[in-house]
Request: fold
Amino acid sequence: MSSGGLELPPGDSGHEGGPADAPGGAPGGAPGGVSGGVPTGVPAGAVSLAPPAAGSVRAGAELDWGADAWSEVRTRAQRAGRAYIWLNLIEQRLRAVVGAVLRPIYEPVHGGDDWVVAAAGPAGQEWVQRAVAVREVSRRKGYLLDPADDNVLSFLTLPQLRELMVQHWPCFEPYFDDRREIELALDELEVTRNVVSRNRALSRAVLEQAERASARLLEVLGGGAGSPSAERLPIDAVEDLVGDRYADVVSVHPDRVRLQRQLPAEDLFGGARRLDAIGIGLNLLVQNFSGRRLVRLTEAGCRVRLLFLNPASSAVKRRERELGLRKGELSRSVEMNILHVRRVRAGLRDPSRFEIHVFDETPRFTAYLVEGESSGIAVVQSYLRRARGMEAPVLVLRGGGTHGSPRDAEHGLFPTYREEFESIWQDSRPVS
Reply:
């Protein structure tokens, strides 16, 4: 008797091939015991029940997960979850588009859910009938939790929805400019869809490619609010779903070096319409954004307000002692930064758009509040006793803009730091 090509071991020593056929009770005359770590007193094809020899692999050892394994699993789950959200959005959007275009054409003639069968035609008869069968099973087992999903269209997969669009492209052409762009984006998503559906490892590069393709496809299909590339910090699918858990905090970085890798100064300040900054020396702006670029930014219509700690205040001296700096070292650095921005202001046609103030209070945080026409970014750091600004953790906040949402004002941290800035600005003194 065999199963999958494997024979069961003989039941007793009297059968052909059993231990009685060989001297010493072992096949081929080999004595019983262990040879090379493998039990030899066992018939050919049989599984030994003897305990493993010392030093061999322990049964069930592969069930143990260490810290590295758990870290890898969490990384895989995070990437797969992020990709799944994008794929879910694309599938729902494409389903809505296909339904909106093809239903008015086929439903008046075929009625009910038969319009999907008719639209699929002979070429798609197999997969559409499979979708009908899956829906019936889902009905019987109570898997349809939302009555709105009780239709054949809801059971079509992304490739099948794509096939309907391709087959009927003349119907879609009045609404979409470039069929090739849609197909290319869906091709890029196919690898990610295959990996996620089978719960396999998804690399960062493939995930980023899928996110770019999804954002582009949603824009083409009319499911996006403008071009994501037009925003310096676009809202992604994950943030849209779970953003309330973190107020308006977009990202957290352990220090400013890692921040600047992800958000360079040009991306942070470039294109701003309003720039307010408060801190001791404002090094993130002064040392990473050139004076010439700052002039062009202001001449293009940006209003700038910079609030430095007074280099002659006692607060600077206390900060020097905290950081273990030589006397006067920090104050000279702040003075140099103030002189630099004064030269920038002197080169402007309208210096009133570029204001410089100093304050004398104990510095509690540094913040760069950057607002554009429709969006804003804030970079905020708290001052730590023994860490310089470059080494302090960084929060990146979304908010502001001329059309800031009510949710940002109600739940966000951006308005909190905006209010704090305005309060200190009112008590500060202008630099001539």
User: Anything to note?
Assistant: The first strand starts at residue 2 and ends at 3. The mean pLDDT is 81.
